[in-house]
Amino acid sequence: MNGVVLISGSGSNLQSIIDNAPEIDLNISCVISSNADAYGLKRAEKAGILITVIEHRLFDSKLTADQEIMKVIDDYKAEVIILAGYMRILSPEFIDKYLGKILNIHPSLLPKFKGLNTHQRAIDAAEKIHGASVHFVTEELDGGPVIAQSSVEIDSTDNAKSLASKVLKKEHVLYSKIIHWYTQGRIKLIDNKSVQLDGQII
Ligand code: GRF
Predict the structure, then answer these.
(1) What domain count does the chain have?
(2) Cβ(118) to ligand 1 under 6 A?
(3) What is the pTM of this model?
């Protein structure tokens, strides 16, 4: 299945997806970055994947920038849009057009800790367990239905950095697995609020 990966930064999730792509039946047609300096672009180039930089500050509105992204997606006939550390909020028009085809990974056990600084917030809240979630993207920020999660224990010695690195390791395994479920046609977004896995609502 053809897919595009949207990034803004380091791209460690992108790297694991690149490494797993043949096994998960994914052809990464293009990596789109919202940031020209994203290290993930170097990872894509090294793997021989086409890259496009679409920086919103160079467009007169969020929608015109998102329309540019839509053009790339449609040009490559991408059937899945994989957000991997993409730090822009997508416009409603974008989400509407590709509803059910956009996946995101978020570094918390949703619905806990939507938004940013999730690791520090989990520590501050004295959580014992933290983790990552893969979900379908809908108009509610970090609020689309969760497909699967992976958890880690928070140790008393953990700080935001150590916790982030433990969670990232889990993310790298989880995301490829769920992308594979998607390319196999095993998961579907139903009515904007539920996930169907192998024909059963989960
Ligand atoms: C990850 O923690 C991901 O869950 C979040 O942003 C981070 C991106 O890291 N959405 P990387 O760019 O994949 O290394």
Answers:
(1) 1
(2) no
(3) 0.96
Beta-carbon-side half-sphere exposure of residue 172 (alpha carbons within 13 Å) = 14
Looking up residue 87, the CATH number of its domain turns out to be: 3.40.50.170
Query: Does the beta carbon of 144 sit less than 6 angstroms from any atom of ligand 1?
Result: no
pLDDT tens, position by position, 127-163: 999 999 999 999 999 999 999 999 999 999 999 999 9
Which of 168, 173, 176, 178 gets mutated to test ligand 1 (max ligand atoms within 8 A of its CB)? Answer: 168
Helices H / strands E in the chain, number of each: 6, 10
* Structural domain boundaries, residue 57: 2-201
Note the pLDDT tens digit of each residue in 1-40: 999 999 999 999 999 999 999 999 999 999 999 999 999 9
Q: Which atom of ligand 1 is nearest to the CA of 14?
A: 13
Q: Among 27, 174, 36, which residue's Cα sits nearest to residue 106? A: 174
> Residue 106 catalytic?
yes
